[in-house]
Amino acid sequence: MTVCSRVMRARLAGIVLALAALPAGAVEFRSVAEPALLFDAPSTKADPRFIIARGTPVELVVSLDKWFKVRDSGGGLLWIERGKLAERRTVIVTAASASVLKSAEESAPVVFEAAKDVVLELLEAAPSGWAKVRHRDGQSGFVRVSQVWGL
Q1: 25-80 per-position pLDDT tens digit
Q2: Domain count, the chain
Q3: Which domain holds residue 129?
């Protein structure tokens, strides 16, 4: 067996072990702490694919040493260094426009509208189907979970 094939088998075994350690059905999200490079493999020597913006929510798919394989709101899967992620949670608007309301009910007044791809800080889970969020300008309210990604 060549050194290259042993390294590949060791990496594959690490990924399998990392997947096995995750609870079934558990979905975990984080936000990007600072602008960061995303790579096609868990190494700074791998091909960098693009820069992801600070605050962008990502889904953690695989944990491997100092790296996470993450999924973005578009479904893309790439690797990011563990230290580039924050515990703070955010969501991203996926609807053409999302109405952020004063309370978690359809009849509540609109506090503000958020356009597609706007990142909002997740403050708390609200009544079923809603999330309490805050815009970077300080305005806060409730948004339908069907209009955002990152929960």
Answers
A1: 568 999 999 999 999 999 999 999 999 999 999 999 999 999 999 999 999 999 99
A2: 2
A3: 91-149
Tell me: do 78 and 97 sit in the same domain.
Answer: no
Q: Cα(98)–Cα(31) distance, rounded to whole angstroms?
A: 20
DSSP output for the chain? --HHHHHHHHHHHHHHHHHHHSPTT--EEEEESS-EEEESSSSTTSPEEEEEPTT-EEEEEEEETTEEEEE-TT--EEEEEGGGEES--EEEE-SSEEEEESSSSTTSPEEEEEETT-EEEEEEE-STTEEEEE-TTS-EEEEEGGGEE--
Query: Do 77 and 10 share a domain, yes or no?
Result: yes
- 77 and 107 assigned to the same domain: no
pTM summary value: 0.79
Pairing label, strands 67-71, 57-64: antiparallel
The type of residue at 41 is: A
